[in-house]
Amino acid sequence: MKHRIRFSWKKFAGFIGFNIVFAALLAPFIVFYGPFEALKVMAVGSINTSRHPQVVRAFLSTAQIDQIMHEYEDALGVNTESHVAVEKVTTDPASGIEIQNIQGHSFKGKVMLIKNPKRVKVAVTDQLGVTGERVTDFVKQTGAIAGINAGGFNDPNGKGNGAFPEGLTVHDGKLVYNSAGNATVHELIGLDSSGKLFIGPMSASELAAKHIQEAVTFFGPTLIENGKPVVVGDGGIGIAPRTGIGQTADGTIIFVVIDGRQPTWSWGATARDLMNVFLEYHAVNAVNLDGGSSTEMVYQGKIINRLWDIFGERYIPTAFVVMPK
User: Which residues span the membrane (predicted)?
Assistant: First the structure.
């Protein structure tokens, strides 16, 4: 007599669950130690320049990471050429803002040109020390026309919620947040009372004397200083989504965002790639801002670049926004 085999959904679910957990535990070893060199190069290059580089460092030594990063950059054809293809997207004389698409060897992005630098302000989260806000929130709350992510932030306990801006944060000539104390921050990025972009070291006690009206802090690096390109090699910060700010001799502010970590769309950019974009736009001063999953550009209430983070906009402490005329 034949015995009918009874199907058990509980056992089936347990089997599937076990295999998912087993695959998740095994995956890092396959990626970092397996025979698939292309997969390893891509994974290390992307993760090492993300907000969780400790994942790579848990499996590989610094020397191994450095070697793979060079392979990653070579695979993408990183070079020192400055040519960037430009396509005009929006020109609205009434708004005083011009937007263009840009494309390089391994990246795509957006450039926003703001003729009047005094229209650029720093927006700061209303919940300092609690949580950051999204760029779309900053633009809406301030009544701005456009905005990009701005300064860096501290990430206590790995929450990454943008509650604590890095270094010094200034809005309307007032120091609204100071995590540096009396120390000099390495890279203050802001605008003085005449609308001139300032990039460089500064302490809280020097802000008034320099007439700083709007400012955030990030470690850069500086890309162009007094008309001279300053990036050495590829810049040493890998390939990732990028955000930057610069200024031309006539005062025009340049916002740049470059999409990344999307192989079918845009891999991302090195510091040199970003510098080359600013050189194409004749910037006399330019600097790299916080990038990665923070990289975002908003215009008239809409996100106009392609975000990398599958969860959407990141919560950040500060943004550069463009106010109406």
Answer: 12-33
Number of structural domains in the chain: 2
Alpha helices in 3-125 (DSSP H): 9-33, 37-48, 54-57, 62-75
Q: What is the residue type of 291?
A: G
**Same domain for 251 and 103:** yes
| Domain presence at residue 3 | no
Q: Tell me the pLDDT tens digit for each residue of 219-232.
A: 999 999 999 999 98
**pLDDT tops 80 at residue 64:** no
Q: What is the DSSP letter of 46?
A: H
Across the strands, what pairs with 257?
Answer: 110, 243
State the residue range of the domain holding 255: 85-322
Among 165, 149, 147, smallest CA distance to 243 is for: 149
In 3D space, the residue among 318, 313, 258, 319 whose CA is nearest the CA of residue 291 turns out to be 258
pLDDT value at 36 more than 90: no
Residue 4: inside a domain: no
**pLDDT of 155 higher than 80:** no
Among 159, 176, 259, 158, which residue's Cα sits nearest to residue 216? Answer: 176
- What distance in Å separates the CA atoms of residue 285 and residue 279, rounded to the nearest whole number? 9
> pTM, whole model, 2 decimals?
0.82
- Rounded Cα distance, 246 and 90, in Å: 19
Tell me how far apart the alpha carbons of residues 309 and 295 are, in angstroms, rounded to a whole number.
9
Region 44-62: mean pLDDT is 63
Please compute the mean of the pLDDT values over residues 63-69 and round it to a whole number.
67
- Residues with Cβ within 8 Å of residue 84, at least 6 apart in sequence: 102, 103, 104, 276, 277, 280
